Amino acid sequence: MASAGAYGHASRSLQLLLEAYAAARLPDWQAFARTLKMVRLAPGEVLFRAGEPHPYLYLVHTGLTRAQATTPSGHTSTIFFSEEGDLLASMTSLAPRAAKRLYERGLHPRLDDLAPAVESRSLHTVSAVEPSVLIRGDYQMIDQLAQRHHAWSALAAAVSIVYAMTQQADAIVARETPEERYRSMLVDRSDLLARLTQRDLAAFLNVTETTMSRIAKRVRDEEAR
Questions:
Q1: Which DSSP symbol is given to 172?
Q2: Within 10 Å of residue 191's Cβ, how many Cβ atoms?
Q3: How large is the angle between the packed helices 198-205 and 209-224, nearest 10 degrees?
Q4: Homologous superfamily, domain 4-175
Q5: Range with the lowest mean pLDDT among 39-43, 82-86, 116-120?
Q6: Where does the chain show beta strands of DSSP type E?
Q7: Who's near 126: CB < 8 A, 6+ residues apart?
Q8: Given this structure, which CATH class describes domain 176-225?
Q9: 183-222 confidence digits (pLDDT tens)
């Protein structure tokens, strides 16, 4: 069980981070704080699975998690990692009312893409890469507080906007070849690379472990010249 000191530090860190997202103090914080729970994961342990409803918001206090998705043909790849200080949630499980209204009224050209959100189903399976400690809050309480306080409403909007921004940035990077992405990570994310196994890295770059080994060797050989 986490010590009271560790829990207090993690919950305070979450409060400061959420208030930064809201750009304001969050009134009735204790109502949300009562939903908080510290979660410990061993390497490989699953936090939540694709297809399940999971309306919670997490702060990764320590450790590293991976989010994976499986295509209809059965191919599994890693979509993103969440590190210390990251907010983590199944965005489609947060029951966005706007998505439901668009879906019900047929007002979006890609209605099938909205279906998971309408059904509050997670798109990803999230598991731990290394021993991890997260603090979990109930997003339904955030939704309730957002009906009463502008700051909580601003927080909910900011979480969605930042998530969309990061997804767009990742989509741009994904257009590069696996080798180009690996070379970029060596420069920009060497700290993350040091924490990943070759299997994790191959799943993230969407290549086989054999191909990943060849890419890494080619880059090492170039650097050794």
A1: H
A2: 9
A3: 100
A4: Jelly Rolls (2.60.120.10)
A5: 116-120
A6: 37-41, 46-48, 56-70, 76-82, 87-89, 125-138
A7: 46, 47, 48, 65, 66, 67, 68, 82, 88, 90
A8: mainly alpha
A9: 999 999 999 999 999 999 999 999 999 999 999 999 999 9
